[in-house]
Design a protein that fits this description.
4 strands; 184 residues; 39% helix; Rossmann fold; four-stranded parallel sheet; alpha/beta
């Protein structure tokens, strides 16, 4: 005669899952990884005009151990890629990555050997934000989109395995356009 016998099948778990998703989406703590001019727009988003604090993302963390959202703003060089991966690995689960700007998403206009052609070759990316540089309103929209993704993310025992498999699948993908031989 427990509670689970009186409620419909799965009611309690789905309700707890929805509540947990609602609570998690309102408490994102971003770690900034500002590498270029997109970082200026990211700083403007946390100012008084756009007020990022109303979405629960007010305090940018200096330590990756206290953050769960990494905003990669700008181009990533080949020398910076291991550092980016190390910072990502230091973040606690659950963690999300937002690639801000066309340079972080696909390398942008820097199509050479020194720049990583998309940060998704180093860490798995959840949200891609286009633009050069993207406006603060676009960053706000990307964070709201991430809120929806977080709220509907399932919980459970197999979540860690699913996250690990998704990360490996994202990192195993090859670029759609081969970069070799484009320049002489």
């Amino acid at each position: 005669m427990g509670l689970e016998e009186k409620l419909p099948s799965g009611f309690l778990l789905t309700t707890v899952e929805q509540l947990a998703g609602y609570m998690r989406k309102g408490s994102l703590w971003p770690a900034t990884f500002g590498l270029a001019c997109c970082a200026i727009e990211m700083m403007a988003t946390s100012g008084g005009r756009y007020d990022l604090a109303r979405f629960g993302t007010e305090v940018f963390r200096a330590s990756p151990r206290q953050a769960d959202l990494m905003i990669v703003a700008g181009r990533v060089s080949q020398k910076m890629a291991p550092v980016l991966r190390q910072v990502y690995d230091q973040m606690a689960e659950p963690k999300w990555v937002l690639a801000m700007g066309v340079c972080a998403s696909s390398g942008g206009m820097f199509n050479n050997y020194a720049i990583v052609q998309g940060v998704d070759h180093v860490v798995p990316v959840d949200i891609y934000l286009p633009g050069c540089p993207p406006r603060p309103e676009m960053l706000l929209h990307a964070i709201i989109t991430l809120h929806d993704k977080i709220q509907h993310m399932p919980l459970g025992a197999n979540r860690a395995e699913a996250v690990r498999a998704a990360e490996q699948a994202a990192l195993d993908q090859r670029p759609l356009i081969p970069v070799e031989g484009m320049f002489r």
